[in-house]
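Continuing the batch. This is chain 6 of the set; chains 1 through 5 are on the previous pages. Same settings as before, nothing changed between runs. Recording input and output for traceability.
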Amino acid sequence: MITVTLPTHLRALAKVSGAIELDIAEPITQETILDALEEAYPMLRGTIRDIATKQRRPFIRFFACGEDLSHQPVTASVPPEVIQGKQPFRIIGAMAGG
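Output for chain 6:
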């Protein structure tokens, strides 16, 4: 089981109060995690990544094991700790402004 954490506004949209657990077949990548998340919670489609291009939305970041995975290829494997369920895959809403 993969654990995914969402920012507050996406948890509210998905109507969940905590982390989400997803059962995903290997290989486990950012892409397969996001596919499974959008399949389980269709109301999240288009919020984390563009519906047509599947590109990550600006101000959305992906983290695992203290590492920013946002600019890694979406087909790259996530860290083993995420695959083993020891660490969550975190989706973070970045902040900007001045």
